[in-house]
């Protein structure tokens, strides 16, 4: 079943990609309206929008999902319910398809809610308490965005139609459209896990690794970015764009710091996704929606590869995810290590790999743009942090001494997983240059002073060197000093956001519930109500029991009393 779906999705993605190229070259847009029901003067219409952006994004989603399904054939081979897993993945992909081709807020909500529901099912796939907690955190965080979209649909009623594409351009200064834009921005922030909704993204790592590869590359977390790309007109030169720039810059900075303190392999890659999402949101809030879309596509390629390599390593290491127990994997798993290193270098922005074309262009556009020092610092320092945790990860997994058990089965013999990884490897190397030729009709030429041109490269080299130092020397005294003031705990726990969004929300409600129980259920109302009634019934039943147990004495005594009363009455009468 996996192979059939892989072939179907793969060829379908190639077909859609060729259509996307045709649409770019001829500047085509197809807008389809299908009248579902017509009743008197009212008609319910399903609308679909096919332009180069939606077609190319769909082709990437289908390509990655086809390779993920092929990869799952071996990764999930011990799962008896693998068909159920494949069906969930296909439902996930179809929800994303609906969201991509919808110019209508109602059909967007259907795809959006489909993503939220199926992602919950996938996060709790391995049924244990940790998965259930992670699934609930994921689902409830995303519900905020769903409610925001419902409110945006209500505000769109002011225009008579939910096809936002008709109104964005000429109603952008309208108050109603500003409210719709604000609600869409809130929904996108929850789905793309920007501060303060970031805590669910690392928690969603409870899902199987193939799902993580799909979620973190091209589906769930990119849905918010894609929606904001469609609504980008509302962000330009408004306070909403400035607010988003600040929050996404903080997200980028926070996740970069957190990844340097993390030891769980999948969580490090999840935090790197969060950092890249912050980068895309930042550049989008500055008005460069084409660049954000370009990085969205290139990031999808190397991030899916990174997760697949991580899954292969975890699979071979008997489900161990702690990087401190790894080491010397480059000797034992050379092919997987090569793919892992290429994906890591693409993430860092190594020249002429796919990440370089989008990342370098974005940072140069930031240097060219009118931004304040804080935003500039967030962009460049976060880039340095990306290289830092990537080099730290490579040191712990590839080059350091092996800390795993002496008897192990580490090998590169999982051919089906390797085939899917090698497919993404080729795309991670050549995808960026290919897309840059397609998306931009004329190449961007940014003329900057030499020190500004070399700033990105210098930051990357410094970040890599710091990552090596942190891993090699472990900076013992530095860590000890930071632990004294609990700073590392603060930095490594995503600024306490997981605690705030779980314990912080339920703690006070539980305390109030306890007070209510003590005051009402165990307090005066219970004392004078149910408990008092219960107490009186017990007393009366005990008295009744005592009377029935001593019936002969009682009857004789009552007879004597009755005779005495009669005698007294007769005397007085």
From TrEMBL:
Ranges annotated as spanning the membrane: 7-32, 52-70, 82-101, 107-126, 147-167, 179-201, 213-233, 239-261, 268-290, 296-317, 329-353, 373-395, 416-440, 452-478, 490-511, 554-572
All residue ranges annotated as the NADH:quinone oxidoreductase/Mrp antiporter transmembrane domain in the record: 102-386
Topology of the protein relative to the lipid bilayer: Multi-pass membrane protein
GO CC, one annotated term: mitochondrial inner membrane
Pfam families from the UniProt entry: NADH5_C, Proton_antipo_M, Proton_antipo_N
Residues covered by the NADH dehydrogenase subunit 5 C-terminal domain: 389-570
GO biological process terms held by the UniProt record: ATP synthesis coupled electron transport; electron transport coupled proton transport
Single GO MF descriptor: NADH dehydrogenase (ubiquinone) activity
The EC number(s) this enzyme carries: 7.1.1.2
Class of this enzyme: translocase
Job of this protein: Core subunit of the mitochondrial membrane respiratory chain NADH dehydrogenase (Complex I) that is believed to belong to the minimal assembly required for catalysis. Complex I functions in the transfer of electrons from NADH to the respiratory chain. The immediate electron acceptor for the enzyme is believed to be ubiquinone.
Protein name: NADH-ubiquinone oxidoreductase chain 5
Lineage: Eukaryota, Metazoa, Ecdysozoa, Arthropoda, Hexapoda
């Amino acid at each position: 079943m996996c192979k059939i779906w892989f072939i179907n999705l793969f060829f379908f993605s190639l077909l859609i990609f060729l259509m996307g190229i045709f649409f770019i070259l001829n500047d085509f847009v197809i807008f389809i309206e299908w009248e579902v029901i017509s009743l008197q003067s009212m008609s319910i219409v399903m609308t679909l929008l096919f332009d180069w952006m939606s077609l190319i994004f769909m082709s990437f989603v289908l390509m990655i999902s086809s390779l993920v399904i092929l990869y799952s054939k071996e990764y999930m081979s011990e799962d008896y319910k693998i068909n159920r897993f494949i069906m969930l993945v296909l439902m996930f992909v179809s929800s994303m398809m609906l969201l991509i081709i919808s110019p209508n807020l109602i059909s967007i909500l259907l795809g959006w809610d489909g993503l939220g529901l199926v992602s919950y099912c996938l996060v709790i796939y391995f049924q244990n308490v940790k998965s259930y907690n992670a699934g609930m955190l994921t689902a409830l965080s995303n519900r905020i965005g769903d409610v925001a979209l419902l409110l945006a649909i209500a505000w769109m009623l002011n225009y008579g139609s939910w096809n936002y594409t008709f109104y964005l351009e000429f109603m952008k200064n309208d108050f109603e459209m500003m409210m719709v834009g604000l609600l869409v921005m809130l929904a996108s922030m929850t789905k793309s896990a920007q501060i303060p909704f970031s805590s669910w993204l690392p928690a969603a790592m409870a899902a199987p690794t193939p799902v993580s590869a799909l979620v973190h590359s091209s589906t769930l977390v990119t849905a918010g970015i894609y929606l904001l790309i469609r609504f980008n007109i509302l962000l330009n030169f408004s306070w909403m764009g400035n607010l988003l720039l600040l929050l996404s810059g903080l997200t980028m900075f926070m996740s970069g710091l957190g990844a340097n303190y993390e030891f769980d392999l999948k969580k490090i890659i999840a935090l790197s996704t969060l950092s890249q999402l912050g980068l895309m949101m930042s550049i989008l809030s500055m008005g460069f929606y084409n660049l954000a879309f370009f990085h969205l596509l290139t990031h999808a390629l190397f991030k899916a590869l990174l997760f697949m390599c991580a899954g292969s390593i975890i699979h071979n290491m008997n489900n161990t995810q702690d990087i401190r127990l790894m080491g010397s994997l480059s000797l034992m798993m050379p092919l997987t290590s090569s793919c892992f290193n290429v994906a890591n270098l693409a993430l860092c922005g190594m020249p002429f790999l796919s990440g370089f074309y989008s990342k370098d262009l974005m940072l140069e556009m930031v240097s060219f743009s009118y931004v304040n020092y804080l935003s500039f610092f967030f962009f460049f320092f976060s880039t340095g942090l990306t290289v830092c945790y990537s080099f730290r990860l490579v040191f712990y997994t590839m080059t350091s001494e092996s800390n795993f058990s002496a008897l192990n089965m580490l090998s590169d013999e999982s051919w089906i997983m390797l085939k899917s990884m090698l497919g993404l490897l080729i795309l991670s190397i050549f995808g960026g240059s290919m897309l840059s030729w397609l998306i931009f009709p004329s190449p961007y030429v940014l003329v900057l002073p030499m020190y500004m041109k070399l700033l990105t490269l210098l930051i990357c080299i410094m970040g890599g060197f710091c990552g090596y130092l942190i891993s090699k020397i472990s900076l013992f005294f530095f860590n000890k000093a930071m632990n004294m003031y609990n700073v590392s705990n603060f930095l490594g726990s995503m600024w306490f956001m997981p605690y705030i969004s779980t314990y912080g929300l339920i703690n006070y409600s539980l305390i109030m519930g306890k007070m209510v129980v003590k005051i009402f259920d165990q307090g005066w109302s219970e004392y004078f109500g149910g408990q008092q009634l219960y107490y009186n019934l017990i007393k009366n039943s005990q008295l009744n029991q005592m009377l029935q147990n001593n019936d002969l004495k009682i009857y004789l005594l009552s007879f004597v009393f009755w005779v005495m009363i009669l005698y007294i009455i007769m005397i007085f009468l």
